């Protein structure tokens, strides 16, 4: 069995298509099909269900892919370790992130990191907190930015305390105040981030024993800002999300400060690859966070 066959299978699983996988990896479709057939012959069972709409894993395929993902991860670790012995920093890091970190932190971090480590490739996967946690647990990514606390089984490194702010329409009666108590907004129409992105707001409300009048649940932070601007309600979001926004809304601090604790997590600090370890140390000491 070869690593190339495993990589081809994982690309087919990722893209859901033999044709797309072939295009992405520079192979012919027949070549990809041959490698998948070869793996199925070696394993003695079918890995993929092929149809006009694409491909998906069989039940046996779902089981075997978990092990293949681990094999590829440790093969990558081996390549990186051998390279580091020769004084070369190389490898690929798969990083999970969410929008505000992807917009305000990662462009500068990646630019500076790749100037210092040009042979380390970075691949990003964007999702919400729950998706990133699942990806770490499944081994789909090497590390992920998250709002802490996260799962107990992960190793996490705190990075930044991000203040939570109240969003108000400009004409709102409370918009002239320098700060607001949560009790003052309990009866206000509230726009809530949707499930998967609501952890930060829920922590604030639960700590203050506040139950707002939730009128809308919205998945996009910028949609929340637009709705507040139009007077459809108020909301609470982290400062990093709001940084640089130009909407006609008022941002007010809470009298009792609340923070989103931003950090980066891995499945195990002991088992992470040399390239991932290098990236985490770089982020930990990055002066612009």
Write a concise keyword list for the protein shown above:
289 residues; alpha/beta; Arc Repressor Mutant, subunit A; D-Maltodextrin-Binding Protein, domain 2; eight-stranded mixed beta sheet; two-stranded antiparallel ribbon; 11 helices; 43% helix; elongated
One letter per element, helices H and strands E, the order comes to HHHEEHEHHEHEEEEHEHEHEEH
Mean pLDDT: 90
Rg (C-alpha, Å): 23 Å
> Largest sheet, described in full?
8 strands, mixed
* CATH class term of one domain: Alpha Beta
CA-to-CA gap between the ends? Answer: 44 Å
Number of helices: 11
DSSP strand count: 12
The helix content is: 40-55%
Shape: elongated
Question: Low-confidence parts lasting 5 or more residues at pLDDT below 50?
Answer: none
Q: Would you give the CATH topology of one domain?
A: D-Maltodextrin-Binding Protein, domain 2
Return the structural class.
Answer: alpha/beta
CATH superfamily descriptor of one domain: Periplasmic binding protein-like II
Assess the beta-strand content as a share of residues: 25-35%
Write structural notes for this entry.
- The chain has 289 residues and is α/β, with parallel strands linked by helices.
- Among the domains are: 71 residues, Arc Repressor Mutant, subunit A, CATH 1.10.10.10; 99 residues, Periplasmic binding protein-like II (D-Maltodextrin-Binding Protein, domain 2, 3-Layer(aba) Sandwich).
- The protein is 43% helix and 26% strand.
- The chain is built from 11 helices and 12 strands.
- A hairpin with a 2-residue loop joins strand 1 and strand 2.
- Helix 1 crosses helix 2, helix 1 crosses helix 3 and helix 1 crosses helix 4.
- It is elongated, with a radius of gyration of 23 Å.
- It starts with a helix and ends in a 5-residue tail after the last helix.
- The model has no long low-confidence stretch (mean pLDDT 90).
- It comes from Paenibacillus glucanolyticus.
- Keywords: DNA-binding, Transcription, Transcription regulation.
- Pfam families: HTH_1 (PF00126), LysR_substrate (PF03466).
């Amino acid at each position: 069995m070869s690593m190339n066959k495993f990589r081809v299978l994982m690309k087919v699983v990722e893209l859901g298509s033999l044709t797309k996988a072939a295009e992405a990896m520079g192979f012919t479709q027949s070549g990809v099909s041959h490698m998948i057939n070869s793996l199925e012959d070696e394993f003695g069972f079918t890995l993929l269900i092929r149809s006009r709409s694409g491909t998906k894993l069989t039940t046996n395929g779902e089981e075997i892919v978990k092990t293949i993902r681990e094999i590829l991860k440790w093969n990558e670790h081996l390549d990186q370790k051998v390279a580091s012995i020769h004084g070369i920093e190389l490898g690929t890091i798969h990083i999970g992130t969410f929008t505000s970190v992807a917009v305000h932190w990662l462009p500068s971090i990646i630019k500076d990191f790749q100037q210092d480590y040009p042979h380390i490739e970075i691949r990003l996967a964007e999702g919400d907190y729950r998706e990133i946690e699942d990806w770490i647990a499944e081994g789909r990514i090497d590390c992920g930015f998250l709002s802490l606390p996260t799962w107990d089984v992960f190793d996490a490194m705190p990075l930044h305390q991000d203040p939570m702010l109240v969003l108000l329409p400009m004409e709102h009666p409370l918009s002239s105040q320098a700060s607001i108590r949560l009790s003052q907004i309990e009866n206000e129409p509230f726009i809530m981030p949707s499930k998967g992105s609501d952890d930060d707001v829920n922590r604030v409300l639960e700590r203050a024993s506040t139950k707002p009048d939730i009128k809308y649940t919205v998945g996009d932070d910028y949609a929340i800002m637009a709705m507040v601007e139009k007077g459809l309600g108020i909301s609470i979001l982290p400062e990093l999300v709001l940084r640089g926004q130009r909407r006609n809304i008022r941002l007010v601090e809470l009298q009792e400060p609340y923070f989103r604790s931003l950090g980066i997590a891995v499945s195990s600090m002991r088992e992470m690859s040399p390239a991932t370890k290098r990236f985490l140390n770089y982020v930990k000491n990055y002066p612009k966070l």
